[in-house]
């Protein structure tokens, strides 16, 4: 039975104070995880960022009971430093520190024997084999432990915690239980709604379930477009988990999908008031206003419709300005600018900025569906048929959930409809629309 190694590091793309980008998921998958596996250990990655920053009970258990730990100090992430402090206070040894070579840290890691790794200008790992070997060798050295915690190094006769074997066995059973349900949910997403319902029933009282599993369940309902199940699940969560930003955002998303736009707006505006503007929250709220624009436009309430169109554009624009790296609110802003009469003058200035944002994402990481879908919309807006067809091929090959191509199709239909009214040719754009609609039905 392999010992666990707990990985403390940020998720996704982050920047340091100088603006340098780090692709942490790539570093985990290409350096840290392979090194841990080569050292014959089982990696567990900290999940508090995925579930909104909560340092929950399972997190403390992992910090205390995992035999080994690796902490990536790059970008001086507050959660990582907090967790490292707890680990050093509990475990005298077998904690490894790592960081990006050449990036500034809040203290000198040399006395703590931190292991550097290297990244390129896009934040992707380089010299991978050497970095894996360094971490693997250090983990193997930890099997003959010497104190690496400053607490135990500096305080003479510091009492050492004796961890009951029963606790470690219970912890291992709990980890296996959580991983089992994550695997079940992955399969259930392909099997459909009923399979996900069955898993929720099997989990029982959600208050006692690992928060990461609950979030996985929550997002599984989203993947099968069961918006009411998402809403009902939030009511069964612990009060702390139900207040997490990710949960509140997706709750607003679900309410909007069942056309309770007012409830969605209240939830999302509350998140923005508490935590500030963000590309994610503003992107979802922009969609609420966009749906209200379409609703009133359909009802021929023209003045009210124009008001919500303006609110949607401004909301998306604020989200894009909050994080230029996230092209999602940017593409929605420029698409809706096409709907105004005359076309919003800012569109021509914003198009190249959004294009740069998505092209940089595509070149610096593994692109996902939304990257290619954004590029597709930009090429349609720019009337570039050849590039649009190329983007369509890439987007269709990257679909994860069936609502994704439907969302893109809705945006493209808006462009087609307004251009038809202006007398523009839309034949090739309509071909793209039909392919997206067909893909949404097939998923």
């Amino acid at each position: 039975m392999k010992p666990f190694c707990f990985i403390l590091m940020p998720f996704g793309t982050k920047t340091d104070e100088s603006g340098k980008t780090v692709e942490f998921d790539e570093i985990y998958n290409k350096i840290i995880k392979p090194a841990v596996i080569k050292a014959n250990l089982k990696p567990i990655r900290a999940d508090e960022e995925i579930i909104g920053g909560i340092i929950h009970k399972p997190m403390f258990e992992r910090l205390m009971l995992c035999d080994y730990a690796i902490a990536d100090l790059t970008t001086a992430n507050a959660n990582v430093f907090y967790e490292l402090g707890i680990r050093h206070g509990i475990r005298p040894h077998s904690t490894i520190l790592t960081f990006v070579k050449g990036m500034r840290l809040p203290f000198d890691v040399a006395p703590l024997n931190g292991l550097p790794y290297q990244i390129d200008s896009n934040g992707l790992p380089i010299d991978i084999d050497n970095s894996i070997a360094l971490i693997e060798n250090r983990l193997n050295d930890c099997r003959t432990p010497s104190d690496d915690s400053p607490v135990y190094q500096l305080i003479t006769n510091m009492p050492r915690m004796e961890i009951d074997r029963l606790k470690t066995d219970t912890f291992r059973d709990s980890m296996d239980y959580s991983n089992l349900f994550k695997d079940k949910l992955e399969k259930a997403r392909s099997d459909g709604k009923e399979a996900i319902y069955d898993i929720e029933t099997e989990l029982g009282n959600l208050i006692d379930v690992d928060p990461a599993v609950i979030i996985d369940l929550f997002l599984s309902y989203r993947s099968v477009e069961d918006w009411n199940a998402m809403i009902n699940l939030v009511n069964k969560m612990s009060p702390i988990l139900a207040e997490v930003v990710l949960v509140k955002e997706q709750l607003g998303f679900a309410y909007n999908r069942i056309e309770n736009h007012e409830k969605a707006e209240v939830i999302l505006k509350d998140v923005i008031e508490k935590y500030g503007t963000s590309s994610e929250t503003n992107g979802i709220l922009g969609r609420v206003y966009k749906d209200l624009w379409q609703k009133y436009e359909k009802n021929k309430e023209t003045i009210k419709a124009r008001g919500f169109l303006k609110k949607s554009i401004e909301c998306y624009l604020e989200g894009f300005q909050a994080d230029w790296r996230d092209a999602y609110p940017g593409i929605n802003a420029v698409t809706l600018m096409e709907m105004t009469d005359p076309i919003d003058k800012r569109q021509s200035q914003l198009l190249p900025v959004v294009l740069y944002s998505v092209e940089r994402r595509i070149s610096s990481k593994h692109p996902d569906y939304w990257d290619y879908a954004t590029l597709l919309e930009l090429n349609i807006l720019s009337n570039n048929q050849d590039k649009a067809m190329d983007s369509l091929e890439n987007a269709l090959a990257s679909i994860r959930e069936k609502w994704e191509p439907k969302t893109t199709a809705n945006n493209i239909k808006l462009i087609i409809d307004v251009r038809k009214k202006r007398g523009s040719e839309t034949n090739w754009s309509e071909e793209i629309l039909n392919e997206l609609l067909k893909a949404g039905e097939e998923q």
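The two ends are 39 Å apart (CA to CA). The first strand starts at residue 4 and ends at 8.
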